[in-house]
Amino acid sequence: MTNFSFRYASNPTDVKKYGTDELREQFLIENLFVENEIQLTYSMYDRYIVGGIMPVDKELKLETIPYLKSENFLDRRELGIINVGGSGTVTVDGVAYELQKKEALYVGQGCKEVVFFSSKGEQALFYINSAPAHTKFPNKKIGKNEAEVIQLGEEKTANKRILNKLIVNSIVETCQLQMGLTELLPGNVWNTMPAHTHNRRMEAYFYFDIEAPQTICHFMGEPQNTRHIFMQNHQAVLSPEWSIHSGAGTSNYSFIWGMAGENLDYGDMDIVAPNELR
Length: 278
What we know:
Keywords: Isomerase, Metal-binding, Zinc
Enzyme class: isomerase
Protein name: 4-deoxy-L-threo-5-hexosulose-uronate ketol-isomerase
Distance between the termini: 43 Å
Structural class: mainly beta
Oligomer: single chain
CATH superfamily: Jelly Rolls
Pfam family, one: KduI
Mean pLDDT: 96
Catalytic activity: 5-dehydro-4-deoxy-D-glucuronate = 3-deoxy-D-glycero-2,5-hexodiulosonate
C-alpha cells in the first residue's frame, strides 16, 4: 500500500507569520514508517520526494503516484535509498542489493521495478529521497567502506560529528540528487553549526537513532528571522533554499541530509556565523 501527500513551497515572507501548527503542517513529515506501507511526500521544492518504506512480512513495490503522471515511478526521476533499520534487500529490475543499516543505494532514471523487503528475522526501514532526472546513470550500492568520511566539529562546541558522504558526485554519478549521513558523537548535540543557506538547492533532513524520550529542536528560517520545530525519532523536515537547516538534540543522534537543485558542488553554501543568527 502506498500513501502520498503534497506540499506547496512557502514564501519566506509568509513563513514569518506562521504559528507552531502552520510551521509543522508545512515543513514537518511525521509518520514516515508504517507497517507494510510506503509513505511518500511530494514537495514543490525542486519537486523533491521524501519517503519511508517499512516491509514487515511482505514485499513492497515502489509504485507511481498521480503527481508524477508516469507509468513507472522512475520514468523521469532518480532515487536514493538509505537503510536505517535491520538488514533488508532492494531488487531493481530483478537485481538484488542487500543493505545493512546506514548503507545506501542509488537507482538511476528509467528503472521499471523497485521492490523492498526485510531479511528474515530483521526489520528494515528504508528512507528514500527522489528528484527529477534528465538522463540515466548506473545503479550503485554504497556500503560503509565506500563512503567518503569527514570528521567535523569539536567537543568544546558540542558538535563533534562524523559525516558520511554516500550519494554524492565524488562517489556515484547523479543528475542532481545528493545524500549523506551524519553521526553525532556521545556528548555532542549540535548539527550543521555554523548554519548556512544555499540558494541553488533545497534540502531535507531526517533524524533517527533518537532514544525516547529525547527530542531534536530543528532550526530553520531566514538567518535573521529563524524558527524552530521540535521533532522525534524517524521524522523528516523540508528545508527551502532560503532557509538555514541546523539542529540541537537533548542527546546525540544521527541524521540523513538529502539535496537537489541546479548544482552538485557540496561546498556551495553561504555560511552564517552563530552570533549573526536572529
